[in-house]
Amino acid sequence: MSKSYFDETHCAIGHPKSTFMQWMLTVDHKRIGIMYAAVMFTFFFVAVATALLMRFELFAPGQQFIDGDTFNQAFTLHGVIMIFLFIIPGIPAVFGNIVMPLMIGAKDVSFPRLNWFTFWLYIFGAAIAVSSLWVGDGFADTGWTFYAPYSLNTGTNVIMTLVAAFILGMASILTGLNFLVTIHRLRAPGMTFFKMPLFVWGIYATAWIQLLATPVVGITLVLAILEKYFGIGIFDPAKGGDPVLFEHLFWIYSHPAVYLMILPAFGIMSEIIPTFSRKEIFGYRTIALSSASIAGIGYLVWGHHLYTSGMADIAKTVFSFLTFFVAVPTGIKFYDWVATMYQGKIVLSTPMIWALGTMITFAIGGLTGITITMIGVDIHLQDTYYSVAHFHYAILGGVVFLMFAGMHYWFPLVTGKMYNEKHAKIAFYLNFVGFNLLWFPMFIAGYYGMPRRYFDYLPEFQIYHQMSFIGALIFIAGLIYMFWVFFRGWTKGEKSTPNPWHATTLEWHLPTSPPPLENHSKVPYVDFNPYEYHQGEPVVKFDYETMRRID
Amino acid sequence: MAHAYVPEIAIDREGNEHEVQGWQDDFYGGKLGFWLFMLTEVMMFGGMFLALAYYNTLHPQDYINASASLNRLLGGTNTVILLVSALTMGLGLLKMRVGDVKGAKLMIWATIILATAFLIIKGFEWTAEYHHGVFLMHDKLLADSTALPFGQKLFFGMYFTMTGLHGLHIIIGIGLMIWLLKRINANKVRQDHHILYWNIALYWDIVHLIWVFVFPYFYMIGAAGGTGGH
């Protein structure tokens, strides 16, 4: 049997004998991606548990299990973990690492040692964030947005969380930088930008956001840290500063960060839809360019978080208009996906039903976003459960669902095994039903005025909270079920062939499954489009010894 | 070299050979990566300039008064020193590219000395300001002190933040140059393999470029003299 990347690796330092050290020091992009996934999903379940704790507290009005201060820390912990430790590294760190170099026919990323260093920088940042739970007066209670001046005056451990967010931002920047150079330099000969798979386009647009927006929030957090230590007074009105400036600087990064999350997810969708429709994707260039334009326009919309913070009316109008504008390229993608499926040979495998489910949930998440783009409506719905439901539909129902879709899609590639399709589908339906039951009532509660981040509420909101609670239980059951299916698949699943889905992109044209250490046996020459199907069958075929086309 | 990297060849359907770019020995990729990293530095300092400019619009007179009290002689000297150091850095790179290793090392030493001089002068400046009661966490800049108006406190806060972060970059730069010297001595940086040198020279360019914007904004806006001051 030929060796896979599980059997051998290159290391950053030396040639350690033990398997454990080989994993810790590996520079192989596939191993690093798997390690990111392992750490991220551990944190994901911590944050899910925190959310469940809050749902328990909110089951009935009044105080049940935790007091208000603990509740504040709970939603901050949930937000910080989910945003900074899970979803921002998210798809790029896992699938950008594992799949992107395979897709462009590269042996590794451009700076493999930097990639290793970045992973440990991420671990370091995560350790700081988590350790602040036990240091000083406990975890920050500011919400993940750290709004000044409260974050500067509260006694809880804000500084450590800020430092952690800064370090995690550095890791994110270096990941983006690595991917940008990789995509520019290491594409296989013949692969022009418009012959790249669309997931690579998503990663490319994302990398630019990571590179250009993250430093702004980085320096904002540094200023906040300096303010707490040295009393400079940049954001605290008591010292002459302006808290709204903090909000601006914060959202200049943190709104593009939303697109940083969703663009690679759209990339996964653009891989899955043509593969399981057995049809060339409709409007390849429009999807590729819409990723780029979402990244561009996404920079100019941060002001919509500040409609109620005190901003000139003309600025609000401009920001509102620009925010509507972001919906256009997103809509183009949606129509392209639907048009791809039209008259295709649709195969309803698990990745495809996750993608189709996401089309529903993300449509709801996106369209409710449009409603709160309107200034008047937003003033009514600002800081209510409506916006909570909106961003959970968009981020969880969009990004994370597509990440799950990608996990089902690339599972045979990464592990060389196949999970049980029937159980995976049951897990999807549990997740889908639980998810909608969990968050849809929040739209209604929010519309009637249930404010976010409160640990108590008026009795009339009880029915919505209880529906959400039941939804949460189903959803968590679905999550556990899904990961159990993955676990069973990895340990006891059937061996998979290198291309179980009849896909066309290069990561499925590998000599073995799982891939060998340095990926393709030979680098192929790319003179074809990424999704070429003829009558439901892939057009391009390779001789896997020489990687020359034989069709 | 024992392990010289040999690029792979991809063959298309007509049988033509195409050289594959590997991540090893990718001079252009290394440069691109570092340019992108420098872009993030620009964005970082850009965020601070944004905050600085915003408070300038709120407190224009305080800014001019505070700026007037800075030492333009020392600041100007430092500007000249940094510009000359950028020249020596660039000359050293040119010497390395034509194979004059000794000349390149001399130029790096010159740059290190100039950078150290910059830090020493900066130290004198900060010490003098400390004795005037203007320093972070000290006397007039304490949160409850009313000796200075908000605008001046913000100005000095940003002054110490930005020149401090810039000084940190100078210190990192000195460390990088010492490392570079070691790599040259170990023959890891050579005429035909000088990407590290190139990138450190680029780093030094960004460091002096940032100063070229920091200097006028802090030192020169009050050059005509403030009203009052302290």
CATH superfamily of chain B: Cytochrome c oxidase, subunit III, four-helix bundle
CATH T-level fold name of chain B: Four Helix Bundle (Hemerythrin (Met), subunit A)
Main-sheet strand order of chain A equals 1-2
Percent of residues in beta strands of chain A: under 5%
Gyration radius over CA of chain A: 23 Å
**Largest protein-protein interface:** A-B, 54 and 46 residues
Could you say what the CATH architecture of chain A is? Answer: Up-down Bundle
CATH homolog superfamily of chain A: Cytochrome c oxidase-like, subunit I domain
**Helix/strand order of chain B, N-terminal first:** EEHHHHEEHH
What's the multimeric state?
A: heterodimer
Characterization of this structure:
- The complex is a heterodimer of chains A (551) and B (230).
- Chain A is an all-alpha fold and 551 residues long.
- Chain A is built from 17 helices and six strands.
- Chain A has a two-stranded antiparallel sheet.
- In chain A, strand 5 (542-543) and strand 6 form a beta hairpin.
- Chain B is mainly α.
- The termini of chain B are far apart.
- In chain B, the strands form two sheets. A two-stranded antiparallel sheet of chain B has the order 1-2. Chain B has a two-stranded antiparallel sheet with strand order 3-4.
- In chain B, strand 1 (9-11) and strand 2 (17-19) form a beta hairpin.
- Chain B is elongated.
- Chain B has helices spanning 27-58, 60-68, 72-97, 101-131, 150-185, 195-220; strands at residues 9-11, 17-19, 134-135, 138-139.
- The interface between A and B is large, with 54 and 46 residues.
List keywords for this structure.
heterodimer, A: 551 residues, mainly alpha, Cytochrome C Oxidase, Chain A, two-stranded antiparallel ribbon, two-stranded antiparallel sheet, B: 230 residues, Four Helix Bundle (Hemerythrin (Met), subunit A), 4 strands, 4% strand, elongated
